[in-house]
DNA sequence: AAGATATGTGAGCGGTGCTAACTTTGGCTT
DNA sequence: AAGCCAAAGTTAGCACCGCTCACATATCTT
């Protein structure tokens, strides 16, 4: 089935209705759900409405997803891909092993949380379904791996070194908490307000140089 | 295990004698919802089922709560009261101004997240409704205030000092991230596994002594 | 050309959020 | 004490949602 023309990579180049009946309905549903989650909150989304937005009947989604949670898992999976890509891109913009590279990873994380708070919360709130979703587990570990890589390069140690893992965990913990607090109390705690980059550099230095 | 139903609700507090038709249905509904959230996940709860557990019709809850989100807000409000009490109790178990007091605040936070992961996630995932709920905002600031108090005592500065606020924010960010990662990837990242108390002491020292 | 299979539709079942109209309860006024 | 009246509960019901089933149609394989 792969000898034909374009790949279904969600590029959405020109014609969304070139494949089977509808186009790549699966990708369009995920996009619709993502949008709904972002605008109406993680709970205010329904499969029916996503189908409506995609222009199909309310039963069509179930040809591509087993049930509602599986759709959410699809959204999370896609989001994790983008999150990891953003983190890697952030790291790649700075010299390997530099503190700046580590801080850039954290900044990508925070930026992601701020630009898509609904999806971000979903990613880390969907852990109920994680048990049966090794793919998500794997992608989560992949994201953590980016932090580990950065920390290892910075410390000039092997990524498998427990000390590296420990510091990476501390880094992630900090950045994760900062992201969550940031999107939770948006403009609150203004007295403690700080520039993200300075903050992340300070944190990275404190954790990787002790 | 005496079932001590002490609901510190804004309006009619504990009035066991009156009990109109049913008793304090409001408190019982909140308890039922809390239990449902903890066992079936934050999404797998329905007002109907909570009413069923409380032994009333499915319309009865709407005499006490405007809608579903308001019930959730009630659960969050009650949970925040307990969280703050736990944090204060943790701090009170150690000398004022000691690093141990600060670490104990963090430990209470982590323990709360671990013992009620569903409710914990709800507390910080319900921020969509926070805008119209100044009561929750206020209680959130109250919890933050406990951390600020601890940091201020430790640094021998005023709680209103920006530097204190900044450090308190860092502490909270760290503990919050640690809690979330902890309940998310329960047994994962085992290589980085650490004793909570040691971890929190290390963090507290790092943040409050630089 | 002819299945086989993937992808869509419409009808429909049970459950849910919420409202409306009604009944019961018990405190408060007189 | 009589009686009003608001609080607190009930049943009935609407609209929507998740999901399934039977069926229609488009594409792939042979």
TrEMBL record, chains A, B:
Pfam families with a match to the protein in the record: TetR_C_33, TetR_N
Alphabetical UniProt keywords: DNA-binding, Transcription, Transcription regulation
Signal peptide: none
Entry keyword annotation includes Flavoprotein: no
DNA-binding region as annotated in the record: 46-65
HTH tetR-type domain location: 23-83
Keyword Lyase: no
Classification via PANTHER family: HTH-TYPE TRANSCRIPTIONAL REGULATOR RUTR, TETR-FAMILY REGULATORY PROTEIN
Protein name: TetR/AcrR family transcriptional regulator
């Amino acid at each position: 089935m792969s000898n034909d023309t374009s790949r279904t990579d969600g590029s959405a180049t020109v014609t969304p209705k070139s494949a089977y009946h509808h186009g790549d309905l699966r990708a369009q549903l995920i996009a619709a759900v993502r949008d709904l989650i972002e605008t109406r909150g993680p709970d205010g989304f329904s499969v029916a409405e996503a189908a409506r937005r995609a222009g199909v009947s309310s039963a069509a989604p179930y040809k591509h997803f087993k049930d509602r949670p599986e759709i959410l898992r699809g959204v999370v999976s896609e989001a994790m891909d983008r999150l990891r890509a953003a983190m890697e891109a952030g790291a790649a913009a700075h010299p390997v092993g530099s503190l700046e590279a580590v801080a850039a990873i954290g900044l990508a994380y925070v930026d992601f949380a701020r630009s898509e708070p609904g999806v971000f919360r979903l990613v880390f709130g969907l852990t109920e379904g994680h048990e049966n979703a090794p793919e998500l587990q794997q992608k989560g570990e992949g994201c953590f791996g980016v932090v580990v890589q950065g920390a290892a390069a910075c410390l000039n140690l092997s990524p498998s070194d427990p000390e590296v893992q420990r510091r990476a965990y501390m880094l992630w913990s900090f950045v994760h908490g900062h992201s969550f607090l940031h999107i939770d109390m948006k403009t609150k705690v203004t007295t403690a307000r700080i520039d993200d980059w300075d903050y992340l550099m300070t944190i990275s230095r404190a954790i990787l140089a002790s």
